[in-house]
Design goal:
Blueprint lengths: L2 H27 L9 H37 L14 H6 L7 H11 L1
Helix pairs in contact: 1-2
The chain binds zinc ion.
Length: 114
């Protein structure tokens, strides 16, 4: 990967990271427990909380991946699989710029998780 491409990915990943930071902060601020003893409100609140925490987990895990990718850009190891060291296909990085595993290692890890 040449310097020009690295800069493009760095700019893209920085933008994604900033957006995620905003989302995570907004979620943390937006939590309000219903004051009245209305059971419907409480049920709805808990449902919203569940959805929110699910979203939050997703944002958090993506955030860590993006931060990790930015670190690898700085180290000069960006675009390499962290497991086998092979180059991650350009095609894959375009879709998943924070990818830290090549397609083969990702598949193996998905199968283990399933
Ligand atoms: Zn690999």
């Amino acid at each position: 990967m040449d310097v020009k491409e690295q800069k493009l990915y760095a700019a893209l990943l920085t933008e994604i990271r900033d957006e995620l930071e905003k989302e995570i902060r907004r979620e943390q601020e937006g939590v309000e427990y219903p004051t009245a003893g209305d059971s419907m409100d409480v049920a709805e609140f808990h449902l919203n909380q569940a959805v929110r925490s699910e979203l939050h987990n997703r944002y958090e895990s993506l955030y860590h991946k993006v931060v990790g990718a930015l670190e690898r850009l700085r180290d000069g190891t960006y675009g390499q699989c962290v497991q086998c060291g092979r180059e991650i296909a350009e095609k894959r990085l375009r879709v998943v710029p924070w990818a830290d595993l090549c397609t083969a290692c990702q598949q193996a890890s998905d199968e283990k998780a399933a």
